[in-house]
Amino acid sequence: MGSIYLIRHGQASFGADNYDVLSPIGFQQSEVLGRYLDTLGIHFDRCVSGSLARQQDTARGVLGAMRARPMPTEVDDAFDEFKADEVIRAHLPDLLASEPHALDVFRNAAQHRAEFQRLFTYVIHRWISGEHDKDGLESWASFVARVQGGLERLLERAERKDRIAVFTSGGTITALLQLVIGIAPIKAFELNWQIVNTSVSQLKFRDRDVALASFNSHAHLAQTKNPGLITYR
């Protein structure tokens, strides 16, 4: 069987003007993963990344720390994260009616982490339900269909025993879980909150049949005995 390694990007810049930038910890996490994969003797036959900077920089960090011959990373924006800022903006007017402080929380997320998580979860549940779709906003169903298209392209080009690395994001991994194991969207997103930066989830495939082999492995970070490297944003 072949394997698809879903690698979540390293820690990004939560609370900054531009989230799509790896933090110093994010770069370190990426290098730790690359060295760990090297010790396991894991090599990749193909590497694919979403188009976001944090995904591509994670790919460069991981692959650069491996001793194997460098290979090009293909870019497929099907593996981009959904646009959380657009989801928030679209649902904010409805939210303000019951949560008048929500705008301040979202503008200063780094100072209100717990409250941000609560309000963001509420917004995501509205978005995933499909009952509050907004004109011009990618729906959850459309997002899943986009991710499914990326998975299908991987399988179409894959050789029987290929090992394929996909550098992506938590929401994208969540969508793939829904597609592969048939879990309800809300339940899938409950798992999303647990996905560690640079964790590895593995899919096994034979032709078009795909199964989940492992989820959210972050042994490479745990073995450093540095709890500061285990992050979720």
Task: Describe, in plain words, how this protein is organized in 3D.
The longest helix is centred in the middle third of the chain and has 18 residues. This protein has 233 residues and is of the alpha/beta class. It contains 9 helices and 6 strands. A 6-stranded mixed β-sheet has the order 3-2-4-1-5-6. It starts with a strand and ends in an 11-residue tail after the last helix. Helices cover 46% and strands 15% of the residues. The radius of gyration is 18 Å and the shape is globular.
Order of helices and strands: EHEHEHHHHEHHEEH
The helix/strand class is alpha/beta
As a whole number of angstroms, the C-alpha radius of gyration is: 18 Å
| Strand element count | 6
Give the topology.
Layout: E1 2-8, H1 24-40, E2 46-49, H2 53-65, E3 74-75, H3 84-96, H4 102-107, H5 113-129, H6 140-157, E4 163-168, H7 170-181, H8 185-192, E5 200-206, E6 209-217, H9 219-222
Parallel strand pairs: 1-4, 2-3, 2-4
Antiparallel strand pairs: 1-5, 5-6
Helix pairs in contact: 1-2, 3-5, 6-7, 7-8
